[in-house]
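BUG-194 | component: ligand-complex export | severity: low

The export step for adenosine monophosphate jobs runs without errors, but we want the raw record kept on the ticket for reference. Input record follows.
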Amino acid sequence: MAVRLVILGRQGSGKGTQAVRLAEAYGSIHVSTGEMLRAAVEAGTELGLQAKALMDTGDLVGDDLINGIVAERLSEADVAEQGFLLDGYPRTPDQASALERILNLTGEALDVALSLEVPVDEVTARMLARGRADDTVEAIRRRLDLYESETAPLLAWFDERELLEKVNGQGDEEAVFARLADAVDGRLAVGDAR
Ligand code: AMP
């Protein structure tokens, strides 16, 4: 069975770690736009050069660019076979619309959109502690602001489509993973019963 998931959450919510675990548990392909962009920066490609300055300040890379990258990745054979877990995408209303168009084209449907909920104070402390090169105080603040203004509205968007599951992201990694897996399993069970 191909499981198709989206995971949303503030930067520093533990989303990346949990995404890797979920993708492994459900056999889905982990599609992280942040990782794809960091790989492009590392490789010094044209895309990487365009993205780097924006990533350093915590700003978002343009919707058209990101939508193109994701559309291309989701059209590959491994995704059709195994499903996907989108991590860091969609991040704006325009990206959510693009995702809807991409899925209409491929004839696939999402199983669930998980929102990993961790308060702002806690994610700020966690991000400063992890010390990634693009984690300056200003960039962290900018990313959190953009999350509230651009990404948080997507929770309503997914909720309207009856796809949203909010999960408490506080506590240790194991406990959070168990909550996420429960939320996914609940959805998959409902899908099977239809
Ligand atoms: P992340 O690893 O998801 O925190 O992403 C790191 C950085 O990559 C972000 O701060 C953005 O600059 C850029 N980025 C990642 N995903 C997206 C996206 N879906 N739309 C726009 N920019 C993105």
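Assignee comment: Attached the raw record above. The beta strands are 3-9, 29-32, 83-87, 112-117, 164-168.
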